[in-house]
Design a protein that fits this description.
5 helices
Length: about 130
């Protein structure tokens, strides 16, 4: 089992469209374009029950799922994991080594999610 040691911690997830995530990207990162996921980490305050916020563009997620020939729910889980790893301090933009570490953890966490009974039920309902 994978443990991130985040028991009793909270995380919020906001689903928006491309325009909504573009506004967040512009306001907080100075990038006037849509993206698939944005994370805000509150891990600096280790005593806080809230570890962060994740915003996901469902519009972009759907486009990416179609392009990759995968179900939308699988793409959304991948984006949640990607955002969570950013909250935990991983950053694929800090060089090839960091990108490799982040991809490895993404794969491990997504494999864990896929192995869960609830995910299997969701996957069979979407076939």
């Amino acid at each position: 089992m994978i443990s991130l040691k985040l028991q009793d911690k909270s995380l919020s997830i906001l689903f928006v469209n491309n325009n909504g995530i573009r506004k967040l990207n512009k306001n907080y990162f100075g990038k006037d374009k849509p993206t698939n996921v944005i994370s805000f980490s509150y891990m600096d305050d280790i005593s806080s029950e809230i570890i962060g916020d994740i915003a996901i563009s469902l519009e972009r997620a759907e486009e990416e799922a179609e392009a990759a020939d995968q179900h939308l729910h699988e793409r959304i889980f991948a984006l949640i994991i990607h955002g969570l790893l950013h909250i935990l301090g991983f950053d694929h933009e800090n060089g090839k080594d960091e990108a490799r570490k982040m991809r490895y953890r993404e794969k491990k966490l997504l494999d864990y999610v896929r192995s869960h009974e609830l995910y299997k039920i969701l996957a069979t309902q979407n076939q």
